[in-house]
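User: quick one, sequence for these tokens?
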């Protein structure tokens, strides 16, 4: 699932309505009309779920961007790496044992990224899967573990 959020600011002198139209690859995918008071900003969020692997062009008004969808293989998202099934199983089992709802793992060798996978869910109500590019907040509990990771 991809979430696309748009902030609409009313710079006019009166309250008004604005229709936000989301275009995917040149076709209307969704729209929502919002009321925005003068001088205020309102956020519209669209949730896009795609099962194929492709690049999508996104447009809302003059704003343009793109995103790439990735496949889910079992409980993991990202490009399937042959020979890494046991690694996926280890991560999935650790997550079950420690009751971790979702996470992302990256493995680098000789300065090159060799594996990037997402596991579990970012939002179980929306059924949003973790992707390799998902961002997570790091809390202060991570402070003791980060220095060894970044040392030579």
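Assistant:
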């Amino acid at each position: 699932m991809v979430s696309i959020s748009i902030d609409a600011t009313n710079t006019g002198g009166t309250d008004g309505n604005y229709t936000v139209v989301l275009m995917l690859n040149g076709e209307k995918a969704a729209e929502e009309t919002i009321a925005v008071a003068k001088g205020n900003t309102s956020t519209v969020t669209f949730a896009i779920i795609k099962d194929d692997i492709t690049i999508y062009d996104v447009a809302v008004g003059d704003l343009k961007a793109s995103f790439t969808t990735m496949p889910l293989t079992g409980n993991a998202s990202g490009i399937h790496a042959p020979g890494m099934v046991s690694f996926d199983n280890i991560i999935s089992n650790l997550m079950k044992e420690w009751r971790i709802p979702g996470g992302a793992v990256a493995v680098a060798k000789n300065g090159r990224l060799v594996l990037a996978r997402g596991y579990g869910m970012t939002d179980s109500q929306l059924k949003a899967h973790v992707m390799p590019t998902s961002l997570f907040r790091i809390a202060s509990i991570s402070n003791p573990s980060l220095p060894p990771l970044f040392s030579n």
